[in-house]
Specification:
The complex is a heterodimer of chains A (115) and B (115). Chain A has strands at residues 3-6, 10-14, 19-21, 23-26, 31-38, 44-50, 56-58, 64-68, 73-78, 87-95, 104-105, 109-114. Chain A has 115 residues and is mostly beta strands. Chain B has strands spanning 5-7, 10-13, 19-24, 31-37, 44-50, 53-56, 65-68, 75-79, 88-95, 105-106, 110-114. Chain B is globular and about 35 Å long. The relative contact order of chain B is 0.33. The chains are: A mainly beta (115), B mainly beta (115).
Chain lengths: 115, 115
């Protein structure tokens, strides 16, 4: 079975500061990794995904994430955040062997950007 | 349509009442998922359809939950005899195919409150 742990439930940060949202996963098989963002009263929107190849993945809105297989981590980073980045962020995995593509999500991290 | 559409956006049900939640996926998407998101938690998988076939219903929490997609397009999640613990946001997602590396597109969700 797979599981995802997001190590911080809330991350407060000042505008224009860098931020890192941490994600660790557990799986006995190879996985694909995803970060989704959820704005208030909205559905989830894909930020970025790691499928294979380069371990540094760039996504929308200036976010990037690095896959570290040895540490089973997929931390999300942004060098300079904006007020508009305030949202809930979810890390998720699906398996190579999946014939459905269902996602296993972490519990989420609330990013609070302060002026 | 342009995206995944869910209705109603909000539903208040009295305990014991039956409810039906509708999902209109992106046209042509083969795969459809239902997730349940409790307050302050990440989404949890409920069930998966490939066209009209329900291939995975391992996440349905009880036999009070039933989902269908009779023509391989619109899907309905039905909850019978609602309980307070059913209060959550129910998210629908669709994707072009059922593979672990395929992006899922999410609707805005239906917030169900059982009183």
């Amino acid at each position: 079975a797979q599981s995802v742990t997001q190590l911080d439930s809330q991350v407060p940060v000042f505008e224009e500061a860098p931020v890192e949202l941490r994600c660790n996963y557990s799986s006995s098989v190879s996985v694909y990794l995803f970060w989704y963002v959820q704005y208030p009263n909205q559905g989830l929107q894909l930020l970025l995904k790691y499928l294979s190849g380069s371990t540094l993945v760039k996504g929308i809105n200036g976010f990037e994430a690095e896959f570290n297989k040895s540490q089973t981590s997929f931390h999300l980073r942004k060098p300079s955040v904006h007020i508009s980045d305030t949202a809930e962020y979810f890390c998720a995995v699906s398996t190579y062997s999946s014939n459905t593509g269902k996602l296993i999500f972490g519990q989420g991290t609330t990013l609070q950007v302060k002026p | 349509g342009a995206g995944v559409s869910q209705s109603p956006r909000y539903k208040v049900a009295k305990r014991g009442q039956d409810v039906a939640l509708r999902c209109d996926p992106i046209s042509g998407h083969v795969s459809l998922f239902w997730y349940q998101q409790a307050l302050g938690q990440g989404p949890e998988f409920l069930t998966y359809f490939q066209n009209e076939a329900q291939l995975d219903k391992s996440g349905l929490p009880s036999d009070r939950f039933f989902a269908e997609r009779p023509e391989g397009s619109v899907s309905t999640l039905k909850i019978q005899r609602t309980q307070q613990e059913d209060s959550a946001v129910y998210l629908c997602a669709s994707s072009p195919m059922g593979r672990g590396n395929t992006e899922a597109f999410f609707g805005q969700g239906t917030r169900l409150t059982v009183v």
